[in-house]
Amino acid sequence: MSQVRAKDRGFSVRAIGGTYVVLLGMNLEKTACQGLKGFAIHRTDHTEDEAFWLEGMKTFAETDPGFPPGSRHKTKDHPIQDFMWSDYSAKPGHSYTYRVLALKGSPAELETFREVSVDIDTESPEGGDHNVFFNRGATATQEYARRFGNRKPGTQGGEADPAWKWLSRGAYEAILEFVSRAQGTGWGLRVSAYEFRQAGVAQAFREACDRGVDVRILYDAGKDFPRDENRATVATAGLEAVCTERIPRPAALSHNKFIVLLKGEKPQAVLLGSTNFSDGGIFGQSNVVHIIDNEDVAAAYLAYWNALATNPERKTLAPQLTEARTIPGEDEDGTIGIFSPRNALDALDFYAGLAGKTKDALFMTFAFGMHDLFAAVYKDGAAPLRYAMFETPLGPGVSAEKRAAALQAFTDLRKMPENQFAVGSHVSINSLDRWLDEELTGLNSHVKYVHTKYMLIDPLGQRPIVVTGSANFSAASSNKNDENMVVIRGNQRVADIYLGEYMRLWEHYAFREWLAREKKPTVALKEPWHLDSTDRWWGRHFGDTPLSRKRDYFAA
Description:
The chain is an alpha+beta fold. Helix content is 30%, strand content 27%.
């Protein structure tokens, strides 16, 4: 099961299983919280017959063992002081039992006050009509520093660097496996790519051609970047004969990242998402590879590819796509594609309408700033809990004279108790006591952190909505660029996977951004950052506060 809830004497735990993430929402009646020191979590992996206490990095001052930076500590001795915790070491397709203990007493003599166990199965990335692969998406992490020493991946001793596989987390392998499904003569692959400059992916298409597969590739050639690197990759792989340069007119981006699989000219499946075919896209910035095994959806993507293949101008293409691919209705379940450019901002209006109407929870990513339509949603929307994750607070189009006002508007939004914002960042040396320095791997030249483009509406509800694809939630993505999105309604498995990955990255960046905004970050060196042995920590999780809203939502 991907969602489970258990309760005992006013103490409840809700578990939500993704692929590599299990979210745990705890709740304890406020009247029972006096003296609460936090939560200890024990995990039993029934698939691998393994059991241990989950660990954290903060300690009580009274019982701090004085371990070196980067060390972790069992939560039974140094508990979690939050009503939500995430297990990011979970593995796909595993069966787990989580024992969650509410602890009281003193730091030196912690006692179990309440205990609840939940049994949960994580999802496999492959399953049903949707296979979903999120890359690591955070190269600047404590775990990367521990494993690989903050170096840029390369080769070691003639063998492939294991850092690549760790960063890929299955995304790279999923792309190669999808291409390999085209077995030979009678099979086809139709590719539309903004960046086509990853050597391994290009080689996979070369090998497909050699097997007799009918391969045809469109790649963006509107500007020097990525045109010149795309051309170089195509030439190195010997793919010139199967490639066409796409030049959107007027000036825009051919921003797609999708592959259609055909057998006997009949569409079988489509690979889509936010992942450019580049080292940075696959192994660096946060991205998703989403494969849909549905002939109708694949047929819609093939029709879109065919429309692009003649390199039409916008004045021809936009009316064609607007008429052929209408905006889905409110009651249409299943998976529906939306393609750009369109005549107007109808796609963007549709997404903003969905976001503004939900009365439960909203989760969105913004790689290039927040459009005014969504700023209005985060100001006046109906959802009591609204998450947003950003690459940077403002998009690249904000002029210098408008920057101060735009930053103030961003700050005003994030102060609202309904809104929870996080901006990409990493831990610099001397920022925090016991933490390791984090450095970017250098794989990304344009976007360092958040590159995904998706929206989750009521993901824990009866009819969740996932919107995902290549399109940033911007005006250009609706009426100028070549873009694709899918709207997936009523698929709880897909929603659970996306929510788990969203919260993994949101928690990662929220803490690092907070640390970067601290006025005196080096204070932590002189006075280690410890757990709170008083009742102040849990008091912030009640009342009309952001932490209280998070507790209410995830603990159900």
